[in-house]
Every structure is written in structure tokens, then in C-alpha cells.
Design goal:
By secondary structure, this protein is an alpha/beta fold. The chain contains 4 helices and 5 strands. The chain has one domain: Transcription Regulator spoIIAA (2-Layer Sandwich), CATH 3.30.750. This is STAS domain-containing protein.
């Protein structure tokens, strides 16, 4: 998980991060635990490049969606980039299109 520091408040030491998460190499449960242990990060922003995910092709859309839901439950805002039509359709059918933000190609 790589981080890009975006903004901080000098009064509160509140930080917001935009972090790239590769679900092929990082377990969503571990990321969720890390987010919960770090209360200084308010509303973490996670970016997932779906176009590069091998697990999307090998483990399927259901696996990826469950991993995304674990991250969302930990309080993160999830940005999906390069989401193909199959993933978008699945999110639509599950009524999750508003839970995850998409970045158009």
C-alpha cells in the first residue's frame, strides 16, 4: 500500500491519505486492521486499479467485491479505476454502485 499525503491540520494533526491498494499483494483484512489501529487518519481514501488485478480474473468478481466491502467497513472511501463492464454491472446488480466511487478511464 503506497500513500500520498494530502492535507493536515496544524491544530489537530488530522491527516488524510490517498493510498493505492493492490488486492493481489495485500490482504484486505490486514489493511482494515491497520486502518482501525491508526485513528489519526480520518476517512482514508483508497484507490484500487481494477485493470491490473489478477485476482479479479483468477478468483472472480465476488472475491474482489468482498475484499472491497471489508475495506469499506473499516471506514475507507474506495475509489475504483479501470473497472471493466463486468465489475460495474456486478456492483450495479448488488446495489453497490454508490458505495464505491469510480474513476472513468
Amino acid at each position: 500500500m503506497s500513500s500520498l499525503y494530502l492535507e493536515s491540520s496544524s491544530a489537530q494533526a488530522v491527516a488524510a491519505y490517498l493510498s493505492a491498494v493492490d488486492l493481489d499483494t495485500v490482504d484486505a483484512l490486514q489493511v482494515a486492521r491497520t486502518l482501525r489501529k491508526n485513528p489519526s487518519v480520518v476517512q482514508p481514501q483508497l484507490v484500487v486499479d481494477c485493470g491490473r488485478l489478477q485476482c479479479l480474473r483468477t478468483l472472480g468478481v465476488g472475491h474482489v467485491v468482498s475484499q472491497l466491502l471489508v475495506l469499506r467497513q473499516a471506514g475507507a472511501t474506495i475509489w475504483l479505476c479501470n473497472a471493466d463492464s463486468t465489475l460495474r454491472r456486478c456492483l450495479d446488480v448488488l446495489k453497490l454502485q454508490r458505495v464505491f466511487l469510480t474513476i472513468d478511464d
